[in-house]
Amino acid sequence: MPRNPQTTAVVTISLPVPMAKEVDRRRKADHRSRSELLRDALRFYLRAQPDIDEAGRQAYLDAKAGKGLSPVYETADEFLGALHEATRRPGARRRAKK
Q1: Left if phi > 0, otherwise alpha if psi is -120 to 50, otherwise beta: which for 68?
Q2: pLDDT tens, 68-82?
Q3: Cβ atoms of 39 and 32 closer than 8 Å
Q4: Whole domain around residue 43: which residue ranges?
Q5: Residue of 9, 5, 25, 7 whose CA lies nearest to 17
Q6: 2 to each of 23, 33, 43, 70, 88, how far by Cα in Å?
C-alpha cells in the first residue's frame, strides 16, 4: 500500500522483543509487511470492541471487571451461610404436593 500523506498517518509503537519477533515471524510467513499485519490486527481489535456512549462506559468497565454481578464471599462458609439464608426466605422453596 503506497503511503499517501493525505490518507495515512505514521504511528510509532514499542513492542516487547518477543512480541516483535512474533510479528516478524508471522509477517514473513504471510508475505506481508509489518504495517499490513498490524493494521489487520488493529482492525480486528477495533471491530471487536463494543460501541459504547459515555453514559454507558463506566457500567461497561464495571461489568468487564466483574463488579456488581454477584456478591463476593471471602470464605466458603460465608457463601454457604448466605445460601442457607436464601433458602429460608418465604417463597424460596415450594412445598412438595402430597
Answers
A1: left
A2: 666 667 778 887 888
A3: no
A4: 15-49
A5: 25
A6: 21, 12, 19, 52, 70
In a domain, 5, yes or no: no
Q: How far apart are CA 82 and CA 12, in angstroms?
A: 53
Residue 7 lies in a domain: no
pTM, full prediction: 0.47
Establish if 3 belongs to a structural domain: no
As given in the structure block, the three cell numbers for residue 81 are 451461610
Number of domains within the chain: 2
Let me know: does 82 contact 73? Beta carbons within 8 Å: yes
Instruction: Based on the fold, state whether residues 64 and 84 are members of the same structural domain.
Output: yes
pLDDT in tens, 26-41: 999 999 999 999 999 9
Q: Residue written as cell 498517518?
A: 9
Q: Contact at 8 Å (CB) between 37 and 48?
A: no
Residues 40 and 64 in one domain: no
